[in-house]
Amino acid sequence: KHSFIRSLLVTVEMYLHHKILKIYQKNIDQYLCPSHFLSSKLVEWGLPKNKLKTIPHCLDTKKYQPDFTLGDYFLFFGRLDQEKGVDKLVQAMAQVPDKKLKIVGFGPEYKKIQALIKHHKLENRIELVGPKYDDELKEIIRRSYAIVVPSQWYEVFGLVNLEAAALGKLVIAADIGGIPEVVKDQQTALLFNPQSVTDLASKL
Predict the structure, then answer these.
(1) Rounded CA gap, 57 and 39, in Å?
(2) I want to staple 147 with a disulfide (CB 3.0 to 4.6 A). Which of 17, 97, 140, 164 is the partner?
(3) DSSP assignment, residue 195?
(4) Reported pTM
(5) How far is 76 from 184, CA to CA, in rounded Å?
(6) Which is nearest to 59 in space by CA: 165, 172, 195?
(7) Are 129 and 103 a contacting pair, CB within 8 Å?
(8) How far apart are CA 7 and CA 68, in angstroms?
(9) Which segments of 47-169 does DSSP mark as H helices, in order?
(10) Using an 8 Å Cβ cutoff, are 113 and 126 in contact?
(11) What's the rounded Cα separation, in Å, for the pair 21 and 116?
């Protein structure tokens, strides 16, 4: 309820600034977008194309030590929220025998994911690790087989894909938002239809 009210207030404020007072139009010279996808969406929403410039996110790879050894588990790391699609990933794992998955992170969907794992009797193959950070998280990524990015809502870029690459891992990622600009299907990733659990399972 409180989240809905906050979202409503933000929407009203944005409408007031953008549509009525035209604060953004009058006072901002340049918008920087991390992906062409986001830039195109902003044009759809009424921002002038000549004020938009795309500068992708980047990483300092000197801070990442890759490991190209194939581990024995798939890995999701991030916020456990509805738009991240972790429930779809658990459902897909139920169609993939003998594979293991680690889920690193926490969020409002944690208990739902926990119940879904139990429902599909996957407790011996899916591990809910909880939140991990910095070097500990990097080590978990390095020891994985591949990173899964099952996003259900637009990712304006998908920095997790760069982090996976910097640590020597390919990704299995949803074909949505800015993700296809970061990875190339059949080259650095396997992309799947975000609405299809079966397609995700086939890629796993």
Answers:
(1) 14
(2) 164
(3) T
(4) 0.89
(5) 19
(6) 165
(7) yes
(8) 42
(9) 86-93, 110-119, 134-142, 159-166
(10) no
(11) 47
Question: What is the Cα 57 distance to its own chain's centre?
Answer: 14
Vertex 178 angle, CA 44 and 74, to 5°: 150
- Rounded Cα–Cα distance for residues 48 and 31 (Å): 10
- Which residues lie closer than 8 Å to 121 by C-beta, 6 or more apart? none
Sign of torsion, CA 76 79 82 87?
A: positive
Q: Which residues are registered as beta bridge partners of 143?
A: none
- Crossing angle between the packed helical segments 110-119 and 86-93, to the nearest 10 degrees: 10
| Distance of alpha carbon 134 from alpha carbon 109, whole angstroms | 23
Please give the torsion angle defined by the CA atoms of residues 121, 191, 68 and 128, in that order, rounded to the nearest 10 degrees: -30
β-strand partners of 127:
102
153-158 contacts at long range (C-beta below 8 A, 24 or more positions apart): 153/83, 153/177, 154/37, 154/41, 154/178, 155/179, 156/33, 156/34, 156/35, 156/37, 156/38, 157/34, 157/35, 157/38, 157/56, 157/57, 157/181, 157/182, 158/182, 158/183
* Residues making up the chain, counted from first to last: 204
Dump pLDDT digits (tens) for 88-127: 999 999 999 999 999 999 999 999 999 999 999 999 999 9
pLDDT digits (tens, 9 = 90+) for 58-76: 999 999 999 999 999 999 9
